[in-house]
């Protein structure tokens, strides 16, 4: 069972990202402040949930959270500053959008760039430990998936409605056939790897 909070003295927000390992599309991040007594039986790390479960949780989290926000950093910025820094930037953008600013941030992962005047704790696999981080992982994932479905309408050949930009066999095959488009992360050196795989 997920823990409801890290501490009870100050307002805390859970933060997580989605799409860090993708070949295409932005990286999304969410920040969520949950009531201390929030509980949902299926809430977990978004990677442990199926699409239907994530989609059912999203409106519940958005309705019952004390505060939540989602932000994205696009491929041009990812290619410019690298995916790790882009993930942190997306988290910062999400935190800055919160109408109620927290006094403590729970960050999924082992590193983070401090956000102005707010303490933070980095927690490896925190999305499977704390409810607020799990909620953030669900919002980041569902908002990103929704965005990738809109990109799929422009570039149906890559199968983003199925793979959401991840480097699946279907996606790699499409890249080998059609090359890269404007939404692919050029800094990931995708194309040379695919050409090597074809040899």
Characterise the protein shown here.
- It is globular and about 55 Å long.
- The model is unreliable at 194-199 (pLDDT under 50).
- The chain has helices at residues 51-64, 75-81, 83-97, 131-154, 160-163, 169-178, 190-198, and strands at residues 12-18, 27-33, 67-73, 104-108, 119-123.
- It is built from seven helices and five strands.
- The protein is of the alpha/beta class.
- Helix 1 (51-64) packs across helix 4 (131-154).
- It has a five-stranded mixed beta sheet with strand order 3-2-1-4-5, sandwiched between helices.
- 42% of the residues lie in helices and 16% in strands.
Q: Which residue ranges are poorly predicted, with pLDDT under 50 across at least 5 consecutive positions?
A: 194-199
As an assembly, this protein is single chain
Which structural category do the helix and sheet elements fall into? alpha/beta
Count of individual helical segments: 7
User: How widely separated are the two ends?
Assistant: 48 Å
Percent range for β-strand residues: 15-25%
**Radius of gyration, whole Å:** 17 Å
Mean pLDDT level: 94
Portion in helices: 40-55%
What is the tally of beta strands?
A: 5
Describe the global form: globular
Major sheet details: 5 strands, mixed
Strand order of the largest sheet: 3-2-1-4-5
Strand/helix succession: EEHEHHEEHHHH
